[in-house]
Amino acid sequence: MVLKVIALLFFSAALLLALIFGHAWPLGAMLFSVNAAALNMLQAGVQRHVSAGLWDSLFVPLLSVPAWTAPAAIGAMLVLIAALRPGRD
Amino acid sequence: MQIRTKRGWEIPEARVTPESLVFGRRTGFGLGAGLLAARPALGQGAPALPPAMRNPRYAPGRDITPEREATTFNNFYEFGSHKSISQAAQRLPQRPWTVRVEGMVETPREFGIEDLLRLMPIEERVYRLRCVEAWSMVVPWTGFPLSALLDAVRPLASARYVVFETAAIPSVMPGLRQSWYPWPYIEGCTIEEAANELSFMVVGAYGKPLPPQNGGPLRVHQPWKYGFKAGKSIVRITLTDRRPVSFWERIQPQEYGFWANVNPEVPHPRWSQATERVLGTNARVPTLLFNGYGEFVASLYTGLQNERLWA
């Protein structure tokens, strides 16, 4: 029950994000508005010390998805976990 | 008894270069210039630069950085936040290229790069460049004073700032896919800083057209400021009465401010600025106030003690 309630909160957050900022607002833009410096340092760290290609091929596509999909995905994962643990709910 | 002190430029007669050798060298230069003109153009169709005399007024006091070092270790965020962007930057078309100079000016104008090469007083200056990341290089830049460009458009008396805008071409600049950054790259300075004799619009380096990874075909360089202040691949220059918020100031204002003058005594929040690594030698040398150009620019900042001049 607890997992489903938390999942519902995440779904609500996803809905609010989509309604307030638009369904296409990228995840990267959301993180940038929360902490631009941290996102910038993450990019510099990955590109300079791990792989420039990794940033371009993995991080950029990931950060380009709509922001609402992140809480929605977490909510879906929680629902799935709750469904797999029926006896404890 | 007359005591005669030899002046700096006086040398013994025996060290004077023979006339025949001088004319021989000129012949060699002529041949070299011909070969230069005949070689394939660099940077996707960029023609050779007009001849540029080196201005001896700005002696750098250090050896020139090897060209390979200066053209393969670059910051150009539109191509990535790492240093190895020189190959990717080759996709940036260098011709045709225009820069629009507008805003608070009497005669807004759009210049083709060839117009600038023809109209502006082209010269070579060897400047030091100090990056905020505590490395430096010395480059023979070819270009013209920014003041000459501003004279051509006649700034209004109300203009207080000059804003430089870098090209933003998503098809060749992968960094622009990160739509959350405040593109285009914007930098700026005061009108007084722009008018300072050191402010230089660069169209070449090492006697060749400025390569795209270094900001070709047109960039600005103000050698007493950290390198990020130098807008690259400029397409628009705007004169305004409002202080611009630059690209880095918008992202990390606590680390990168509007003035960003070099000062070894004011550390970056995450590292010291006391010394710098010299590209090409990897020697670590002390950083100088205003990057050693204080005699030219220190007076610009009198009365600005309340401003954050150093970061």
Topology:
The complex is a heterodimer of chains A (89) and B (311).
Chain A: H1 2-21, H2 27-49, H3 52-63, H4 69-84
Helix pairs in contact in A: 1-4, 2-3
Chain B: H1 19-38, H2 67-72, H3 86-89, E1 98-103, E2 109-112, H4 113-119, E3 123-130, E4 135-145, H5 146-153, E5 161-166, E6 186-190, H6 191-195, E7 200-205, E8 208-209, E9 219-221, E10 234-240, H7 247-251, E11 275-278, E12 284-286, H8 294-297
Parallel strand pairs in B: 1-10, 4-11
Antiparallel strand pairs in B: 1-2, 3-4, 4-7, 5-6, 5-10, 7-8, 7-9, 11-12
Shape of chain B: globular
State the helix count of chain B. Answer: 8
pLDDT < 50 stretches of chain B: 20-43
Total E-strand runs of chain B = 12
Give the structure's gist in a few sentences.
The complex is a heterodimer of chains A (89) and B (311). Chain A is an all-alpha fold and 89 residues long.
If you had to describe this structure to a student in words, what would you say it looks like?
The complex is a heterodimer of chains A (89) and B (311). Chain A has 89 residues and is mainly alpha-helical. Chain A folds into 2 domains: 1-23 and 67-89; 26-65, no CATH class. In chain A, 80% of the residues lie in helices and 0% in strands. The model of chain A has no long low-confidence stretch (mean pLDDT 92). Chain B is an alpha+beta fold and 311 residues long. In chain B, the strands form 2 sheets. In chain B, strands 3, 4, 7, 8, 9, 11 and 12 form a 7-stranded mixed sheet that branches. A 5-stranded mixed sheet of chain B has the order 2-1-10-5-6. Chains A and B meet through α2 and α3 of A and loops of B.
What are the key terms here?
heterodimer, A: 89 residues, mainly alpha, 2 domains, 4 helices, 80% helix, B: 311 residues, alpha+beta, five-stranded mixed beta sheet, globular
